[in-house]
UniProtKB/TrEMBL annotation:
The keyword Glycoprotein does not apply. PANTHER family: ARSENICAL RESISTANCE OPERON REPRESSOR ARSR-RELATED, HTH-TYPE TRANSCRIPTIONAL REPRESSOR CZRA. Residues 61-137 form the HTH arsR-type domain. Keywords: DNA-binding, Signal, Transcription, Transcription regulation. It comes from the Bacteria. It comes from Streptomyces finlayi. This is HTH arsR-type domain-containing protein. Residues 1-25 form the signal peptide.
Length: 155
């Protein structure tokens, strides 16, 4: 492994190497190889540069007509699994309102809850992804100037 202080080779002695994504390592790779610890390499995860950016999610018009603007906004904001609190922050809706919308979307088979420790994260189902992909192919807009399938900005 090359390091800013030079290059060195370590024998792990069968311990293995722990690879640990860390938002706090960005933009560097951090290694720790000491006798008392598991050999570890911390690296920046994909997308960490956008971690603190505002998403600016908007509801696609066709989906808003079908589900209602707020519910469509919640579904569109779930491009990655998120908690009720995170969705409330992303959409500008109250946590209670987001919770009610998620309950309806879950009943409709469009979102699934997943428990991660003390947190419940919600993710879109394959049905919701198909619905959004169909809307994107019909020209619906997902977020300000964003193409849903490529994620690239439109000029």
């Amino acid at each position: 492994m090359k390091h800013r202080q030079g290059s060195r080779t370590w024998s792990l002695g069968g311990q293995g190497l722990l690879l640990m994504p860390s938002a706090f390592a960005w933009p560097h790779v951090i290694s720790k190889v000491t006798p008392d610890w598991q050999p570890t390499v911390r690296y920046p995860p994909r997308g960490v540069g956008t971690l603190w950016e505002s998403r600016g999610t908007t509801a696609p018009e066709a989906l808003a007509a079908l589900l209602g603007r707020s519910r469509a906004l919640v579904l569109a904001a779930l491009d990655s699994p998120a908690s009720t609190t995170a969705l409330a922050g992303d959409t500008g809706l109250s946590a209670g309102g987001v919770s009610q919308h998620l309950t309806v979307l879950r009943s409709a088979g469009l979102v699934e809850p997943y428990r991660t420790g003390r947190f419940v994260l919600y993710a879109r189902t394959a049905t919701a992804e198909s619905l959004l992909a169909g809307l994107a192919s019909a020209g619906a807009e997902f977020g300000p100037g964003r193409d849903r399938q490529s994620g690239e900005g439109q000029q």
